[in-house]
Structure formats: structure tokens, C-alpha cells
Design brief:
The protein is α/β, with parallel strands linked by helices. It is about 20% helix and about 30% strand. The chain has helices at about 55-65, 75-80, 165-175, 190-200; strands at about 1-5, 10-15, 20-25, 45, 70-75, 90-95, 100-105, 105-115, 125-130, 135-140, 150-155, 180, 210, 220. Strands 6-5-4-3-2-1-14 form a seven-stranded mixed sheet. Helix 2 links the parallel strand 5 and strand 6. Helix 3 packs parallel to helix 4 (about 190-200). It starts with a strand and ends in a 5-residue tail after the last strand.
């Protein structure tokens, strides 16, 4: 498995399918950059409708440049994108928790349900988490523990809906082999470094923290 982090929650996942490498892009949002150049995608997955997870204008171009790619999202996000007339409904696959998507032999389970609470005065936004091939979890903006174990966790480390202590507790609960910090764009660089240091110091035994260089593909292996 190879991962490329394009900033914040946007991650390209490459792994073996039935007939070669499958390429899945997650959450191409407004705080991310350089994902626009990615081609040969099999699917684009959106966790929820917030602008830091989906940039509607750039998403349209991305899909135009990847004509074979499906757009996988929940119904709330589909409604939020309704003004983008250049995204054909036939390219959208609407899913929610409990759904399963199979792409060229790669199984993606949809988990979660709701975005983590920012404040009680704000409406709750539906949020999909995605488990890829039983191995990697992108939780979106929620800290819902999966029912089983995962090998690689894309771990949010900053946002108005969380504090670093919650990320540490989530890391300890999931206890993956490898955790990759994401959702960091709202943090100053010094705070990103501090948060990642805390994760390394307080990670459960056997868990490695891997901070990916922006836009650089890295082989993260798999125990699955």
C-alpha cells in the first residue's frame, strides 16, 4: 500500500486490486493542494460536506480529468454539491454507514455516521468513515472506533471539533500498526510538530507514527 498526503484530510491510497493497482483519493478539500494533477483514479471518496473536505470547483475539474472515477459520498454531501451541474448523477454512488463498495476487488466499508460535535448550537453533519480492504481507516471528522482492528489509521490531529488529548485516546483505542497524522492545516507548524511529538510519546506499544511529506508517495506496507 502506498499513501500520498496532499495536505489536511486529502490522501491518495494506492493498493493492489484484481487486475493491477487501484487508486482512491479521499477528501480533496479547500485546505489541500496539488491533488488536481492526480490522474488514473478509480474513485474519489468524500467523508462529508465541509469545505475543507470537498472543494466543489476543483472537484469538478478532477472528475473531468478522471472520467472513469466514481464519486462516493453520502446523501447530505450530494445535496451540498447540487449546484455543480457538471458532475453527472450517474457518476455518484450514494452510501452511508453499513454500506460496502467493491472496486476491482478492493472492498471499502462505510462506517461512522455523524461529524464530531463542534458545539451544541450547530447542526450535526453526517460523516462517512471508510475502511479500505479491512486495512486502512479514514475516519473523516469523527473519532468513532472501528468494530475490528485496522492496520493503518489516518489520524486527525487538529480541528475546532477536537483536542489533541482526544486524538491520543482514539489512537490508543484503535491501536494500529501505523498512524498517519492528517487534518492538520488549521494548526501552526509549531503546533503540528508538538501534536505529533505527543502522539509519538503516548502511542500504544507497537504503534508507529509516520508524518508524510507533502505530495510524496510513501510505501507503508500492510500486515493484512
Amino acid at each position: 500500500m502506498k499513501l500520498t498526503h496532499y495536505g489536511h484530510a486529502c490522501v491518495l491510497v494506492e493498493l493492489s486490486g484484481d487486475d493491477g493497482i487501484i487508486r482512491l483519493l479521499f477528501d480533496p478539500g479547500g485546505y489541500s493542494r496539488d491533488f488536481e494533477q492526480v490522474v488514473d483514479l478509480d474513485a474519489v471518496f468524500l467523508t462529508h460536506a465541509h469545505a475543507d473536505h470537498v472543494d466543489g470547483e476543483r472537484l469538478g475539474k478532477l472528475l473531468a480529468d478522471n472520467p472513469a472515477a466514481e464519486l462516493v459520498l453520502n446523501a447530505h454531501t450530494q445535496a451540498a454539491l447540487a449546484g455543480l451541474g457538471d458532475i453527472a448523477p450517474s457518476r455518484m454512488r450514494i452510501v452511508g454507514p453499513g454500506s460496502t463498495v467493491v472496486l476491482r476487488g478492493v472492498r471499502v466499508e462505510v462506517v461512522g455516521g455523524d461529524h464530531a460535535c463542534i458545539h451544541a448550537a450547530l447542526p450535526i453533519v453526517p460523516n462517512n468513515g471508510y475502511i479500505i480492504d479491512g486495512s486502512l481507516l479514514h475516519p473523516g471528522d469523527a473519532l468513532d472506533a472501528p468494530a475490528g482492528s485496522v492496520d493503518v489509521l489516518l489520524l486527525p490531529i487538529g480541528g475546532p471539533w477536537m483536542k489533541i488529548g482526544e486524538a491520543i485516546d482514539y489512537l490508543r483505542t484503535v491501536a494500529p500498526r501505523l498512524a498517519v497524522p492528517i487534518h492538520q492545516a488549521g494548526l501552526a507548524p509549531v503546533h503540528q510538530k508538538m501534536h505529533c511529538g505527543l502522539l509519538r510519546d503516548l502511542a500504544p506499544e507497537g504503534t508507529e507514527i509516520a508524518v508524510l511529506e507533502h505530495g510524496v508517495s510513501q510505501d507503508v506496507g500492510t500486515s493484512q
